[in-house]
């Protein structure tokens, strides 16, 4: 005899146990997902930090390697109406004073310990075809004042807002500002502001510019750490410069508003390697913090160090800023002030670049 089966539901106790188990499993899964998300966030933050430091450092090194072409024995400029010979590479120290002090945007004194760097950089095409954009022109007549060159007509391409040229004999150069080229077939004439200064040239001891000297466009570049007004964070900045006395007594000043080279860079440190005894041995270079603009023979190397962070703080397993290890870094002679950890991982990019344009043997 068969008895009919009875359908039976879950008891209240069974339902409560199942709900409790489901809650525990969901909580564990949620915690695992959150922890995984924080790991991904922190990994991305560290990668961002590395990228920001590397991109900033490589940009600086690229400019450093181009600086000073045709000026291994210095650059003649007019400062305060008087010619003086300066280094085409120089910079201030965040801990320095006077001409060794660093400046920031608008040539204001630096206050956070970061350095700054000034470079005289020729156009990349200065060894190109005559009269092409950025190419050099050859001097065809000795003397001072306006320079007669072999460029028939005017150089092609749009002129810069504040055109600057260097007239170089591949040993020393002379900075020509507010320059213009006037056609005077079969040659052309380079007119410039400093032409009214008696005896001004790239070789005063020779009586002026000489035939076969080269005249080519240059830029004065000022690198420093400033605040990006868009996000309020520190960044590596670059300003175009022009001759003029800054607050530190140096011969160049910013010409306009700076541009952001790389965001999230909080420190720039520069050390200058000088071969004072002309040994030619990089191991014997004397590295110093800050380098005066007044011409000093023997500058052979620059060590650039930048410290960068990611976009946002790292988080620990409790979703709080990591406070134990994310602190500002000590680099070169700059030890940041003691402050609470802020959760920003710091990446350091430090490279040393030789200055091939300042070694006469390589020209």
UniProtKB/TrEMBL annotation:
This is Prepilin-type cleavage/methylation domain-containing protein. It comes from Corallococcus exercitus. It holds the Pfam family PilW. The lineage of its organism: Bacteria, Pseudomonadati, Myxococcota, Myxococcia, Myxococcales. InterPro entries: N_methyl_site, PilW. GO terms for biological process: type IV pilus assembly. It comes from the Bacteria.
């Amino acid at each position: 005899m068969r008895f009919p089966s009875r359908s039976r539901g879950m008891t209240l106790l069974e339902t409560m146990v199942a709900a409790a188990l489901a809650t525990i499993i969901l909580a564990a899964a949620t915690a695992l997902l959150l922890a995984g998300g924080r790991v991904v966030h922190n990994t991305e933050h560290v990668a961002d930090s590395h990228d920001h430091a590397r991109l900033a450092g490589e940009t600086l090194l690229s400019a450093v390697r181009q600086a000073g072409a045709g000026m291994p024995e210095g650059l003649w400029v007019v400062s305060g109406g008087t010619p003086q010979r300066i280094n085409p590479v120089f910079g201030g120290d965040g801990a320095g004073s006077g001409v060794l002090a660093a400046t920031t945007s608008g040539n204001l004194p630096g206050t956070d310990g970061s350095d700054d760097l000034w470079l005289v950089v020729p156009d990349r095409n200065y060894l190109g075809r005559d009269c092409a954009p950025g190419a050099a022109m050859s001097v065809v007549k000795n003397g001072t004042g306006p320079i007669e060159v072999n460029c028939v007509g005017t150089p092609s391409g749009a002129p810069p807002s504040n055109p600057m040229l260097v007239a170089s004999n591949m040993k020393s150069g002379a900075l020509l500002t507010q320059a213009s080229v006037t056609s005077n077939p079969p040659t052309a004439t380079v007119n410039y502001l400093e032409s009214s200064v008696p005896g001004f040239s790239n070789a005063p001891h020779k009586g002026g510019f000489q035939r076969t000297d080269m005249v080519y466009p240059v830029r004065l570049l000022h690198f420093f750490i400033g605040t990006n007004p868009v996000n309020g964070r520190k960044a590596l900045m670059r300003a175009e410069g022009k001759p003029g006395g800054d607050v530190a007594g140096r011969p160049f000043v910013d010409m306009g508003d700076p541009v952001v080279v790389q965001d999230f860079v909080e420190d720039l440190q520069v050390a200058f390697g000088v071969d004072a005894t002309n040994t030619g041995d990089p191991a014997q270079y004397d590295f110093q913090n800050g380098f005066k603009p007044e011409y000093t023979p023997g500058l052979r190397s620059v060590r650039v160090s930048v410290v960068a962070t990611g976009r946002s703080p790292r988080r620990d397993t409790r979703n709080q800023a990591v406070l134990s290890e994310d602190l500002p870094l000590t680099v070169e002679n700059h030890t940041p002030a003691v402050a609470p950890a802020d959760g920003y991982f710091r990446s350091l990019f430090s490279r040393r670049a030789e200055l091939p344009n300042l070694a006469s043997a390589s020209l």
